[in-house]
Amino acid sequence: MKHITAKDNPTLKFIQKLLKSAKFRRESSAFVCEGKRLCEDALLSGCEIKSLVVSDTALDKYSDLTEKISQKSEEAIVLPDSLYAKISDTKTPQGILCVIKTLDNPSLFDKIKCNGKFLALDNIQDPVNLGTILRTAEAFGIDGIILSSDCCDIYSPKVVRGSMGAVFRLSYTIVDSVESFLNSYRDINSFAAVVDRNAEKLTDISFDGSCVVCIGNEGNGLRRSVIGACGKAFTIPMNGRAESLNAAIASSVIMWEMVK
Amino acid sequence: MKHITAKDNPTLKFIQKLLKSAKFRRESSAFVCEGKRLCEDALLSGCEIKSLVVSDTALDKYSDLTEKISQKSEEAIVLPDSLYAKISDTKTPQGILCVIKTLDNPSLFDKIKCNGKFLALDNIQDPVNLGTILRTAEAFGIDGIILSSDCCDIYSPKVVRGSMGAVFRLSYTIVDSVESFLNSYRDINSFAAVVDRNAEKLTDISFDGSCVVCIGNEGNGLRRSVIGACGKAFTIPMNGRAESLNAAIASSVIMWEMVK
Questions:
Q1: Which of A6, A12, A53, B5 is the most buried (most CB within 10 A)?
Q2: Hey, CA dihedral for B20, B22, B28, B31, is it positive or negative?
Q3: Contacts of A86 (CB under 8 A, 6+ apart)
């Protein structure tokens, strides 16, 4: 464990850039997870841990965990609480974070031939929605997530936190476009989730066999090109003046129907 | 329309208190809704509008709407944009808000005898969750919501906003405790949603007839006393290490099963 008191330490600078910039995370193939539970999740999930950073207080308080993580981590750094607070992304920091190697998992596609259930996210923008969708996908046993490259970054601190660690355990892959993904995997049953009173109802859809359901942007829904590439479209029947569901809620009800 | 430039106007002071304090909202039987869409919803839903407050810019931009609302409102106030920004609860204000009379609707209980589907919320704490649950309840056609008095305030700005106006249109009632509510309405089928691998599965539950499902606190679940007062308990089957769902997600999947 290396004790550091200067703010201009290269690892700390690296972490601050990782917390702020999706582009930098992509270029560095690394991201940050913060908090006791998430760091423990990263360890248990066999993630490749590049750095462990703990505050003096956390080193004391979570001594077992920091010991275990530091054995797996390329480096381990201890900071005064005040310095830790400056780099933390949270308001009331627990004093522990890890830098993790990114996890895109293309082996996902092996499962497509054997009855897998997949969700394809097209231009989802809200990190809270994405985090919740990942958490729910894990809870419901979804086999993999396909994300268009213009979705919000799966490695952003809000998504990692909101996913409750599902980001470490789920299979997912980032593709140039959902449309081109669908065109390359023609033997999977593909569905477009749309808001359209005239579309077939979710309750009438059978999700037997290998399936992928495509979910679109919060404001604009699915791109026409993606709907066109899907074998079928369906809608969640709704009442009321709003006639709309939050994207995470809509996704969850759909995943529930896919796997239940 | 009354033009005001002084910050210490009594209506403006009243609004600031309403935005900040649940206790004050309860005592005053009033709450604030802000933004063009919500104010329009309040008007269309026949809410009792006590005050309309608009900025100079909004008066211009939404002239039709402000004209219509001011005809129904007890008073109408125009403010300079800079003063409006000071009282607003949002970061980028649209410049229009209304003070509305609270809407608790005890007529809810008439429906209980005729096949209604109800959700009882026990100590839900997060306003974002509550707003989302209300929005989803409206979309799925739930007949009414029962809230324990220790839920977060249904009239808080975050809940009103998150509900997308459902708060104006849904039937709901606030009760001292969900348990005493269940004890007074014994002819309704009551269910406790629990996290318990050994409980009956949601997929095996029939929601025929009049039903109420009870949903508990985000961290601690349902109180034992509420579970005890329910006719049956069930769980949403889950996988993964987290084995948990966000309260709004769990509620949505349950409401979907109740009404679909």
A1: A53
A2: positive
A3: A7
Q: Longest C-alpha distance within chain A, in Å?
A: 64
Residue among A169, A243, A249 minimizing CB distance to B248: A249
Check residue B124 and report its DSSP letter. Answer: -
- Residues of A near B (Cβ–Cβ under 8 Å) read 41, 44-45, 132, 135-136, 138-141, 164-166, 169, 203, 237-246, 248-249, 252-253, 256, 260
Neighbours of A114 (CB within 10 A): 9
- Name A99's Cβ contacts closer than 8 Å, sequence gap at least 6: A11, A14, A15, A18, A30, A31, A32, A49, A50, A51, A53
Q: For residue A250, what pLDDT band results from cuts at 50, 70 and 90?
A: very high
Inspect the interface and report whether the beta carbons of B242 and A141 lie closer than 8 Å.
no
Radius of gyration of the CA atoms of chain A, in A = 20
Give the closest residue to B160 by CA, choosing from B28, B37, B12.
B37
pLDDT per residue over B20-65, tens digit each?
999 999 999 999 999 999 999 999 999 999 999 999 999 999 999 9
Asked if A139 and B238 come within 8 Å (Cβ–Cβ), the reply is yes
Interface test with A, best of B169, B236, B245 (most A CBs within 10 A): B245
Q: What pLDDT band is residue B109 in, cutting at 50, 70 and 90?
A: low
Residue A103: band (very low, low, confident or very high) from pLDDT cuts 50, 70, 90 = confident
Distances (CA, A) of A29 to A26, A87, A188, A220: 5, 20, 30, 30
Q: What is the DSSP letter of B153?
A: P
On whether the pTM is more than 0.90, the answer is yes
Q: Give chain B positions within 8 Å (CB) of A169.
A: 240-241
Does residue A180 contact residue A209 with C-beta atoms inside 8 Å? no
ipTM value: 0.90
How far, in Å, CA of A57 to CA of A95, rounded?
Answer: 7
Burial readout B212-240 (b: 16 or more C-beta within 10 A, e: otherwise): bbbbbbbeebbbeebbebbeebbbbbbeb
As a whole number of angstroms, the distance between CA A234 and CA A199 comes to: 5
| pLDDT (tens digit per residue) in A152-181 | 999 999 999 999 999 999 989 999 999 999
Per-residue pLDDT band for B91 (boundaries 50, 70, 90) equals confident
When computed from its CA atoms, the radius of gyration of chain B, rounded to whole angstroms, is 20
Residue the block writes with tokens 């096949």: B115
A interface test, pick of B41, B170, B253 with most A CB neighbours within 10 Å: B253
In B94-168, at which residue ranges do the beta strands (DSSP E only) sit?
A: 96-101, 117-121, 144-148
